[in-house]
Amino acid sequence: MDITQFETGLYGQLRHAAGSQWQEYVNHPFVRQLAAGTLPQAAFRQYLIQDYLFLLHFARAYGLLVSKLHTLPEMRSATASLNAIIAELPLHLAYCASWGLQESDIAAQPEAPETMNYTRYVLDTGHRGDALDLLAALLPCVAGYAEIGLGLLNSPETRLDNNPYASWILNYGDPQYLAGVRAAMALLETTGQQRGAQSRMPELSTIFTTATRLESAFWQMGLNAVDTAR
Asked: Model pTM greater than 0.85?
């Protein structure tokens, strides 16, 4: 997947409209420290815990999306994304275990305010609006992580050798993940054509940009955990 693909179509319009909020998300200090291998491990562990809790609600959001789509191809596409998230959960737990975090440790943790704010915003958007509204709330995470992963893999400032976060970076440049991202962007495009996206751009941009801002807050939550521990 070429990184320029993120600049085209309806997704590209929404991404462009997010402006500085988008750049703050994909170039957040948390991301830059991941690339350099300098991110405090306490920050990453906090992120891993909350990301698992986040994924549980993200799966619910995709289940809601399936119920809001009208054609079998659309429903299959959203169901494939839902199944991918469900399949990722045990893999995420195995990865957490490599960082000394057992499932019981994660289950015992409360959701951080940033996790609650983000996931409930996505779900509320889906309940209030239609499939297009919900996709606008979902795509900053789905496609944003791919853009971040590819950007880091192509950046001369990224260090993979002896970087404890190398496998995380490589995961979001993985061909299988990128194939899912292309499918999600195609679903956004198709749904937008069916549901009059161009006449709804102000509302869709607000949803997309708000979700982007909540993504940045999610990164910052990890960094804040280090400051709190001091």
From this structure: yes
